[in-house]
Every structure is written in C-alpha cells, then in structure tokens.
What we know:
By secondary structure, the chain is of the alpha+beta class. 20% of the residues lie in helices and 33% in strands. A 5-stranded mixed β-sheet has the order 11-12-13-14-18. A 5-stranded antiparallel β-sheet has the order 15-16-17-19-24, with no helix packed on it.
Amino acid sequence: MVRHQWRALGQALRELRESLDLAQKQVISLSGEAMAERTLRAYESGEQRPSRDRLLRLAIRCFQVGSAAELNRLLQLASYAELTDKEVQQHGLGVSGGKTSGRRSPSSQPPADFRIEVSTLIVIDGQGQEIWRHQFPNRLEPSAYDHRNLIRRCVFADLGDDGKTETLFVHVPLDFASVGTALICFDEDGKIRWQFDPGRPIQDTRQEYFPPYFISSVNIIPVKDAGPQILVSSNHYLHNPNQIAMLDPSGALVSEYWHSGHLYSVLHADLNGDGVEEILLAGVNNGYRLGTLVILDSRSVSGASSQPGRQILGFPPGTEKAVVLFPRTCVSQNAPYNRVSDLRITRERRIVLAVVEGVSEARNPGVMIYELDFGLNVVNCRPDSHLQEAHRAMELQGVLDHSWTEDENERLRSHVIVKGGV
C-alpha cells in the first residue's frame, strides 16, 4: 500500500532510536524542532517520510550517525540523493565512522571531570584524558557550567552498584530561557540512558505556573534501606515554585517536595547520628520573605511547604523535620527579601550559611554569616566586611542612626526562628 511505502526507512529509524534507548519525546527534544510525537510515529511506521533535511537532522543530531555510508543508506531508503562532497565536509563525516557519542580513547579510568566545547560535552578522567564525548544538536550555555556550578551541573556516580560509572549532566541549551533544562543520564560509554524534565504546572493561592523549569542542583543521596536516589532541585523560570524531585537510578520519579521560593544550595548529612541522612536545602522562603534552611528526612520527601500568602495547592503538608528562618538586617529592611546564597558543613560539625542582604549579586550590600550546630542552635553570627561598610555608609548618609556593634549581632542571633528539630 502507498501509505507504507517507507516501511524500510521507518524500521531503520526505529532501530536507531531503540539502539540509543531514546523515547520519542527525547528524540524531539534533541532535534530542536517543533515536531509532534505522532509525526515521528508516522515516520517509524512508514506512513510518511521526513524531508531530506529533517532526515539528516534526525540521523546526525538525534541518532548520532557519524558515517557517510550509513547516512547514504538512509537517504537511499527515502529515495533521496546521496550526500554531496560539500555535505560530507560540512557535517564532518567519515566514510566508515560510528556514532558521534562513545569512547574516544583507551582510558580505563572512571570519569572525574568534564568540559564544554560549543555544543559538545567531553567527559575526562583524573589525568585529563578524554573518555567519551557527546554532541548536542544546539549550542550549550557556557556560563551555566562556570566555576562552582560545575559540581551542581554534572555528577558522576555508580547508580547501579555494578562498578560502572554513570554521568548525570544538566543540559542547558543556549535558549534555555525558552525551553528549560533537563537532566540526562549517560552510561559509562556515553550513551543516553534516560532524561528527566523537571517541574509541571503548579498553582498557589495567587496564580498558576507553567514550565519551563531550571535545574539548579543535582545530588546523589544515600537513602537507608533503599539505596541511592538522585535529588534534583529545580525552580520555575519566572516565579517562586521550587521542585525537589527524588529519582531512582532509572530516572523514575519516586517522590517530590514543593517549596515557595528558590532553593539553590543542597547538602546532605546525618545530623543526629541515627544512620539516616538528612537533606539540607537553603534559599529563600517567599511567604515570609526571609532566607531559609529546610531540613528533610531523606526517606520522606513529599508535600508542600506551609507559607502565608504563597501556599502551593494540591499537596499535603510538607514533611520537613525543621525549618529555619533568618532575619533581615537593618541594611535590608527595605529589600523584598534576604536569601541564603551558600551552605557548607564543616569537619567540626557546624552548618555555615551565608545570608545575602540583597536580592541580586549586582546589588548586594553584604552578607551575614551564620554558624549553627547540628542541633540547629545558632552558635555564631557576624557580618562580612561589605555589610559593615554598607552599614557605615548608610550611617553617614543619615539613613541609619546607629553603629554596628556586638549588640546588633546578638539581636540578629536571637531573631533566628527554628521550627521543628532534627
């Protein structure tokens, strides 16, 4: 029948997709095109054939075909002209090469780091030797992988407890503001195993929020009696909803916790010595307009945070063990909120938080440093030099009528609110 005249082409496309263990939704995402899943299904059933340009894009971008011979085979099945010399050169094709993803060196060492080159993820070992690379269809946003973001945007772990190291990579395309970000899991040879797209439509007492969401942090959390789980913290691209998603090693969603206010900093530690890891999440509480530290039991991550005026609907109460709220200083009383920008745990069993007194890095008058013990008692707090300078400048301008003293530190320390406990 005419409607099945491209059956051989469809079978070849389906085999390429399945060899990479890609879902049809993932293929569409990798293609960078506006294409319905039913269109891709029609291609694979042989009912339709893609245009020549789309066929090449699917093969090269999505299915990682790097062989001119293989591409010509697909073009022949579709009754299209074979590749020209210019196209072979344009796409950097070899006459007998394989996939564009896979091992590129004899290194037998596990991955230790990565680098980004335009649209390519390159995974390297501890000696800086390349292990494998993967080329995405579009350019990556280089600033997303700068400096301290490295540890949050790419994680290496043996998820299957089989001696093989998987790579969890946050895909941030150049147009991430429009399409969002995704977590992609690669196996030890650089083949895509699964993809997780964060967030979903959420409503609070003020409005409804639709994707995209931006992934800010990825962590491997040891869960007692359940093995490792993958924590993905993602915030809405415009507003306050923040999803904490717990995934199993196959990328399936196990549970989720929703919070009104972005939670950029994530750590885990056994705070009370019972053998169970607590999850520490730090950022801002939009209901109270204060910097916050949220602590969850790693075995119970669900519900939505309870907040005045910003309650996320459709979820039971959150399962927080404790919530800590940090007061604003007199320098930031007119700011919309303060926020925790950094979270650390020291060898001396202290939780150290940097609370920024401004809403942006560009307009940040300074930082308050808080030190808590594992019982969440505030053992120390002090301003950094920038905050002291900002306070002094406001004194000279007549905006403030007092100097910063130890009494100010003590007042702020006494105004830290701790709800619950560990």
